[in-house]
Write a structure and sequence with these properties.
With 138 residues, this protein is mostly helical. It has seven helices and no strands.
Length: 138
Amino acid sequence: MRGTIRKLAASVKSSQSLIDLREASASLHLPIPLYRRLLRAHRGLPYEMRSLGDAYVKAEFRRHREVTNPVHVMGFLTQWKIYLDQLPSTRVGARNFSGKKLDATIFEKMSNEQLGQLYELLHTTKELWKPVENKSKS
């Protein structure tokens, strides 16, 4: 009986974290269906944005294929789900996608390496999105 009470007490302590985990994971997708939904959502984007987005999604999911830490997996899937929710519908308004500003708190938390990558991305995308008449003048 005492062993049962201890097990019950231990389960009550951890039940709150299990409830939180279930609530958080209820809105998440499994990795493969989320991956597919991301690639499908990119179909409505202009070609350059789609190719850049598809390549990035594929590379990130490949890099995280062997991750076993559940907290890291939850964070990874959560961030991709947030990205998916922010993408425009593939039927309406996808051609008018303009992105959004980076939150200052996220910017402050970035490492020097991440800031360097962001800077490179900025210049790469500026080159991609130059108007056609500017490209021919250069």
